[in-house]
Amino acid sequence: MQLRARKVFRLAITPALALAIAYAIAAPMPHIAPLFAFFLASIPGPPLNAKKLLGLLILVCVTLGAGLMLIPLLLNFQLTALLLVLLGLYFSSYLTVNLNKNLPGTFLAMGMVIISAAGTVSYSLATTIIHVLIMGIVIATISHSFTYWLFPDDPPGPASQDEPPPVIKDTIQSNWIAIRSTLIVFPAYLLLLSNPAAYMPIAMKSVMLSQQVSTIDAKSAGRELIGSTILGGVFAVLFWFALGLWTNLWMYFLWMLLVSLYFSCKIYQLIATRFPPSFWLNVAVTMLIMLGPAVEDSANGKDVYAAFFSRAMLLILITLYALFAIYLLEYFFEKKSLK
User: Fold this and answer.
1) Three-state SS string across the chain, please?
2) What percent of the chain has pLDDT over 70?
3) Quick one: which of 197, 225, 202 has its CA closest to 213?
4) Tell me: the pLDDT tens digits for 300-328?
5) For residues 317 and 113, what is the distance between their CA atoms, to the nearest angstrom?
6) Which of 7, 121, 165, 281 is the most exposed place for a label (fewest CB within 10 A)?
7) In whole angstroms, what is the distance from residue 240 CA to residue 255 CA?
8) How far, in Å, CA of 156 to CA of 67, rounded?
9) 61 close to 107: Cβ distance less than 8 angstroms
10) What is the CA radius of gyration of the chain?
11) What's the pLDDT at 11?
12) Residue 231's pLDDT is what?
């Protein structure tokens, strides 16, 4: 089997398997596990071994723990806490843009945004979310290790003497992108703090936006942000109605496998597409963010369609805001650069 085909099957099976495991063991917020599985399986190279997994879990505890430390400040010294969140969001974007440390940047943004906001509702809710995220990472890693064993990469060949030259980044531009990402996400965080219980669905999307706007330019922002959000919602609706044809965990796993296979073919260009791999990865993540809570609402007897519509509108509005902010900030940055 060709290497690209193996990568496609690996990326397709990993989130489906993680979803099946998470729902089978009745894990809280089970849609988090396939979400992390998409991220881990899309990273080139072998899965995390025990040592690297332990290091990642320590990193998660430290970065998310930063959000826990902000909770007393948010409740008593709001201005100081907000300034620290602003600095934390900038540093998370700086890690992503300047140092190419995507995982630390993502988890630090989660700590700053999700954990601190949840802690203003209940400290136990914040710690529960941390436990959920850690469990999701473990399930995703186990699933990735199994699929990598089924579809391994080719053994490494002889090392090439001609190493690619290091990429020299424009420091001013990189710092501006990190600042731009921070300025875009911080107002969304303030909205989240105004009513964490109502606006919690946008928390994960805000974290996605903080990382997503760090890697795109203004020209492709509309396609990347709006396109991936709307298409993710369309796939969530189609997935929901397909799941309603025969509702059980086995069919949930098979539908997830089928949809993931389609996304994998798009990401690895087996199916022709005009969009970059990051676009389709964001479509998959947006679909899970919208679909997972809908399944939980159905299991708890809530009004699925009203909650789904409200969640979809929040995601689209926060994305439209991010797009408008990108164009506005880029306009002022270019105007200042010309002077």
Assistant:
1) CCHHHHHHHHHHHHHHHHHHHHHHCCCCCCCHHHHHHHHHHHCCCCCCCHHHHHHHHHHHHHHHHHHHHHHHHHHHCHHHHHHHHHHHHHHHHHHHHCCCCHHHHHHHHHHHHHHHHHHHHCHHHHHHHHHHHHHHHHHHHHHHHHHHHHCCCCCCCCCCCCCCCCCCCCHHHHHHHHHHHHHHHHHHHHHHHHCHHHHCHHHHHHHHHHHHCCCCCHHHHHHHHHHHHHHHHHHHHHHHHHHHHCCCHHHHHHHHHHHHHHHHHHHCCCCCCCCCHHHHHHHHHHHHHHHHHHHHHHHCCCCHHHHHHHHHHHHHHHHHHHHHHHHHHHHHHHHHHHC
2) 90
3) 225
4) 777 778 878 888 888 888 888 878 887 88
5) 18
6) 165
7) 10
8) 40
9) no
10) 20
11) 94
12) 92
Spatial CB neighbours of 114, under 8 Å, sequence gap ≥ 6: 67, 129, 203, 204, 207
pLDDT tens-digit series, residues 244-294: 888 889 999 999 999 999 999 999 988 988 888 888 988 998 899 888 888
Residue 18, phi-psi category: left (phi > 0), alpha (psi -120 to 50), beta (remainder): alpha
For the chain, residues with pLDDT lower than 70 are: 156-170, 201, 209-222, 337-339
Phi/psi region, residue 29 (left: phi>0; alpha: psi -120 to 50; beta: rest), is: left
- The count of other CB atoms within 10 Å of the CB of residue 98 is 16
